[in-house]
Task: structure prediction
Amino acid sequence: MKKVVAMLALLACAVFASDITGNWKATAEGPNGPMERTFTFKVDGKKLTGETTSSFLGKSVIEDGKVDGDNVSFTIVAKFQDNEMKLNYKGKVLSADEIKFTVENPMGGNAIEWLAKRVK
Result:
């Protein structure tokens, strides 16, 4: 009986964690101060689609998006001063309302960590 309860709890966590469909607002500390970004996610099975917008880099479409349990990954192509740069996001769902993302800086330097919160 304990095994059945444990299996159901694990299954519930997996279903819960992958349900990130909706609108999210993220904040990060950048080299020049605080930054904000919004995400609109749509999950279909393990496939993640949507878009993201920031005042600094504008709007980008989510590409190669995947949700695997509480792990999330996707790529965006952002324009900065007429140059395109590819940004790879890797995230971990912390709760139904929070995701922590790490984005490697394509120009070198430290990775940027974003904390996204579901918009209600």
